[in-house]
Amino acid sequence: METTKRMMLFPFMAQGHLIPFLQLAQLIERRNGYSITLINTPSNIRNLRSYLPTSSSVHLSSLPFNPSDHGLPPGHESMDSLPFHLLFPLYKATESLRPAFTRFVSDALSLDPTSPLCIIADPYLGWTVDVAEELGVFHAFFVTGSERSTAIYHSLWTLWPLQWSHSDELALPNRPNVRLHRSQVTKLLLYGDDNNPIFVFFCRQIAHFCKSDGVIVNTAEEFERSGVEFLKEESGGMPVWAVGPLLRVPSTPSSDDTHIGWLAGHPPDSVLYVSFGSMNTISASQMVELAMGLEASGTAFMWVIRPPSGFDFKGGFREEWLPEGFEERMREQNRGVLIHGWAPQMEILSHGSTGAFLSHCGWNSVLESLCNGVPIIGWPIAGEQFYNSMMMVEEIGVCVEIARGNGNESVVCREDVERIVRSVMMGGEGEEMRRKAREVGEVLRAAVGEGGASVRAMDDFLRTALPTMAGKD
Ligand code: UDP
């Protein structure tokens, strides 16, 4: 008789992690014989439920978690719902989930000792490696970023402290061909400090990375050839399975979807979509320059806008954060739409009127853009976003970088915004980038199509993680 194989998936509490983990759960679900449980805190589980079709067999289970025990407002259990100063308390609070998670997995093992079980966890939940070891089950990390960027980021942590004294540029000692500018290194690492609890927390998580049994990555091998080997090396020779891109299927727009309706009123490839992801934002002065540059460029745009850094939504969006009369003027001219809140990103990117994406280069956004053949104007802000942008510019040729955030200090001027937006939306440079983005989109889609390399990698991962038990199947 066939034994049910159990997968326990545990994402970090941020949209850029929860969404791909749910995709991964659904991908495994399509193969028969797996019982899949996605674990998280109560409010994230409630939200995930709304994304999952009622017919799905994926179990959603919550671990007890009280935000106020960690200084967080009630119901705020995900990075995107918190202001910057409360991000670290949430990172830290994830460590408190360890006893409940251990109990959850150990109860599952006692209930059915014959069905094999595997944990797939987020690298930000590094301690799950220890739980797996304690309980004797297979453990894999699921990296929701790119192979190459994750490897660079990991190198920077393990090589810390690096000497920047002679120049603003530095080659990674273990990869001399990777040259970084100090504006591409997160402040936490540049000014790393053993007495800073945030720094120490990240060091702890990174140290767990190499102790897992393997790494699954949301990318395709053909797309990131240089990344596979680099990540393998970084992870101490662990197996690496590139199983992506894991993408949501855009929903069919309904007639009352105003954003999609607005896009439909514009010619093909004529609208610039602007978004800094689910939690990042830019400074108030950058926001004004971006608005002025967009207005001067003459391009139609759709901008997912959040309060600038240092502010939150309390009291609503303030007009003073934008040039006087900007929103009204853009609306009257049918030139631009500001989305205050959550945008249907996949539906926007897959719409024929969207011609480019001004993005913070979060990995999900990069993949969603390229799978839809949409080139990128990069404005990375934190973490590995700098290396995603760099790879898209230097290796893939589908991106031009407009600014870097890094503590929101980058000076951005409206003239540069106007010039770059015009060249991508109206010039030959944009046409060439769009052609390449479409080519890359085909490579990515082929990887997850029938017989594609990512499908084969998934087969191999499943065989390795939960081998058929001799005599049982
Ligand atoms: N997203 C969305 N609407 C928004 C903002 C974000 O649907 O208004 C989704 C986006 O499609 C992507 C994820 O949230 O799947 C963000 O992940 P990414 O890696 O791009 O950036 P992060 O938010 O993790 O920085």
Automatic annotation (TrEMBL):
Descriptive protein name: Glycosyltransferase
Coiled-coil segments: none
Gene3D superfamilies: Glycogen Phosphorylase B (3.40.50.2000)
Keywords: Glycosyltransferase, Transferase
EC numbers: 2.4.1.-
Similarity annotation: Belongs to the UDP-glycosyltransferase family.
Species: Acorus gramineus
GO molecular function: UDP-glucosyltransferase activity
Glycosyltransferase N-terminal domain mapped to chain residues: 9-246
A Pfam family hit: UDPGT
